[in-house]
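Final report, closing paragraph on structural work. Over the funding period we assembled a curated collection of sequence-structure pairs, and we close with a single example.
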Amino acid sequence: MNRKELEQRLRQELALPYYNAKIAERDYSESEFQEMKAQLQADIEQYARDYVNESNANG
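Its predicted structure, as stored:
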């Protein structure tokens, strides 16, 4: 899949309608997509945990 298809799938599968990836213009394999998706999902979850912890610490 190309960059545009990869972005569309990430938006759809992770429910991020306005997500714009900063990735190279080339073809990507399904395994590369799955790795990117897993990493992005982990980053989002970590951001949410950090945000909640920071909000709780600040009262």
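Residues 31 and 56 are 37 Å apart (CA to CA). The chain has a mean pLDDT of 91. We thank the funder for supporting this effort.
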